[in-house]
């Protein structure tokens, strides 16, 4: 009785095992015997063929090899799928552990679609929390996260790392791979058909990439803004990407037409006619001849050298057929903030991009485009970090002669430094400058007014674009710190003066110049004896 009852209980299991075995054998038989397509199916030799045995063996061997390769391929795919599934599972677990309350991500293996949707929701929330679509209010000028800028060949960086190079080819593989991936993804996005236009689409390549900027908010992700050549002159394509510590997500793909965007360059000036002459040479070549969408406003303090300055301006106007300039004279003590404020408010035309500039600045036509692309009324203001030139007589003291100005303007640690403590050169729309309240006109003389304006923008909801640029240079000149300055201004002036002369190593060579000369003299005597 016991044996009969045990057999009855075991019978369903036995039937199940037999069914599974039969199914398995059927699947194996189908895999082994399913013929190829018409084009690939091999013809069996006829029975009466003289090479029947050899033919059958060759065909069976060939099919056996085909099936073996097919099984190997299936096994590889299974392994890859398992690894991908494991990776996704670990990723979801990590997100669930880190953000269990905000997104309520549940690792339900029976509902993978829901888990994936929750993960995507989290990644998109990272975009919303980051400073991508709008600026955030910041407490101090040190709270802004600066951008790094890059081209296909080089990265221009404020945080120079161990190399201490202000520009470099990215030597770290992770940085190089990161930027290559972003450029390739942007090119792919540009070449993706929009489904609207019937015209043959243009094919973009990496060579159409002009420059990009990027920055990482440590707890959110990395923002990339890439500029490509457009379909016509003065037209560009701008791609905004965001990596929320996961897959890169396209944020924006827009056409940017800067053909009619005028820049009003405002220069406050007192005396310094020779420097103004040098500035106008640069302005004529880059602003008038190469760019052409530019206005110049000179705010002059006092009367000394005014006729010489006017003559330089009029000669440039006649020789270049340039009429887009304004000359304003103020009979009062020089104040940089007052001059820029007066120049900005004097403009009576449509909303215009203001570029606050100094007479000892050299800019390129590429920088003027950067000025336009990184400003947007009610959205963004541009605070470029310029490259400040060291004293050429120190840098090139061992040369036979000092190179021309254009040859001196190279971005290397031996020739200058990123002036990341300066906020005087800035681009913004006039409407934003007026709405923010302009400059503090109580500040007199040198320094302080630019930091005050910068802090106003940081305290607003405007996004401040802070990045080193390759087309904006501060030309070296001897700096004089006057007794009339306040103690704070005098200290800032002296610090700027010290940093402007030369690099740490070059100054060290000057300090130890006598010791070095004594060493060389001893070496010379030693060589004579031998």
Automatic annotation (TrEMBL):
It is a single-pass type II membrane protein. The keyword Manganese does not apply. Keywords: Coiled coil, Glycoprotein, Golgi apparatus, Membrane, Metal-binding, Signal-anchor, Transferase, Transmembrane, Transmembrane helix. The keyword Magnesium does not apply. Its main location: Golgi. It comes from the Eukaryota. One of its GO terms (molecular function) is glucuronosyl-N-acetylgalactosaminyl-proteoglycan 4-beta-N-acetylgalactosaminyltransferase activity. GO terms for cellular component: Golgi cisterna membrane. It is found in: Golgi apparatus, Golgi stack membrane. It catalyses: 3-O-(beta-D-GlcA-(1->3)-beta-D-Gal-(1->3)-beta-D-Gal-(1->4)-beta-D-Xyl)-L-seryl-[protein] + UDP-N-acetyl-alpha-D-galactosamine = 3-O-(beta-D-GalNAc-(1->4)-beta-D-GlcA-(1->3)-beta-D-Gal-(1->3)-beta-D-Gal-(1->4)-beta-D-Xyl)-L-seryl-[protein] + UDP + H(+). GO terms for biological process: chondroitin sulfate proteoglycan biosynthetic process. Residues 71-98 form a coiled coil. It is an enzyme of class 2 (transferase). The chain crosses the membrane at residues 7-32. Its EC number is 2.4.1.-. SUPFAM superfamilies: Nucleotide-diphospho-sugar transferases. Belongs to the chondroitin N-acetylgalactosaminyltransferase family. This is Hexosyltransferase.
């Amino acid at each position: 009785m016991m044996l009969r009852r045990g057999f009855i209980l075991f019978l369903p299991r036995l039937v199940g095992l037999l069914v599974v075995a039969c199914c398995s054998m059927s699947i194996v038989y189908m895999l082994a015997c399913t013929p190829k397509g018409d084009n690939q199916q091999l013809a069996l030799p006829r029975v009466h063929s003289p090479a029947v045995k050899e033919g059958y063996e060759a065909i069976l061997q060939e099919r056996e090899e085909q099936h073996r390769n097919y099984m190997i391929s299936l096994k590889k795919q299974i392994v890859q799928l398992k690894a991908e599934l494991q990776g996704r599972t670990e990723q979801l677990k990590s997100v669930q552990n880190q953000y269990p309350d905000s997104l309520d991500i549940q690792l339900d293996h029976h509902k993978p679609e829901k888990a994936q949707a929750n993960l995507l929701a989290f990644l998109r929330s990272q975009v919303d929390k980051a400073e991508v679509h709008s600026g955030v209010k910041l407490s101090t000028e040190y709270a802004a996260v600066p951008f790094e800028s890059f081209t296909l060949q080089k990265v221009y960086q404020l945080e120079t790392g161990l190399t201490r190079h202000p520009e470099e080819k990215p030597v770290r593989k992770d940085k190089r791979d990161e930027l290559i991936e972003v450029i390739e993804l942007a090119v792919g996005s540009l070449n993706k058909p929009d489904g609207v236009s019937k015209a043959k689409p243009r094919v973009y390549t990496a060579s159409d990439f002009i420059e990009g900027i990027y920055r990482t908010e440590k707890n959110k992700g990395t923002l990339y803004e890439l500029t490509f050549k457009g379909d016509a002159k003065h037209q560009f394509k701008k791609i905004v990407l965001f990596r929320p510590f996961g897959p890169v997500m396209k944020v924006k793909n827009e056409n940017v037409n800067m053909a009619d965007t005028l820049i009003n360059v405002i220069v406050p000036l007192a005396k310094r006619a020779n420097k103004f002459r040098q500035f106008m040479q640069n302005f004529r070549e880059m602003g008038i001849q190469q760019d052409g969408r530019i206005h110049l406003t000179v705010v002059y303090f006092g009367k000394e050298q005014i006729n010489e300055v006017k003559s330089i301006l009029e000669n440039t106007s006649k020789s270049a057929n340039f009429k887009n300039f304004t000359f304003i004279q103020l009979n009062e003590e020089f104040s940089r903030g007052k001059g820029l404020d007066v120049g900005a408010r004097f403009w009576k035309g449509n909303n215009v991009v203001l570029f606050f500039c100094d007479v000892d600045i050299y800019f390129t036509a590429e920088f003027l485009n950067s000025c336009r692309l990184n400003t947007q009324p009610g959205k963004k203001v541009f605070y470029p970090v310029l490259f400040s030139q060291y004293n050429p007589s120190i840098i090139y003291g061992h040369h036979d002669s000092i190179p021309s100005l254009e040859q001196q303007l190279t971005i290397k640690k031996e020739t200058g430094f990123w002036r990341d403590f300066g906020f005087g050169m800035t681009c913004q729309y006039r409407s934003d400058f007026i709405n923010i309240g302009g400059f503090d006109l109580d500040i007199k003389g040198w320094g302080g007014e630019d930091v005050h304006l910068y802090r106003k923008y940081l305290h607003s909801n405007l996004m401040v674009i802070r990045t080193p640029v390759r087309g904006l240079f501060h030309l070296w000149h001897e700096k004089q710190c006057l007794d009339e300055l306040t103690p704070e201004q005098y200290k800032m002036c002296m610090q700027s003066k010290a940093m402007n002369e030369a690099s740490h190593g070059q100054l060290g060579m000057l300090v130890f110049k006598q010791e070095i000369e004594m060493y060389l003299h001893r070496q010379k005597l030693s060589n004579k004896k031998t």
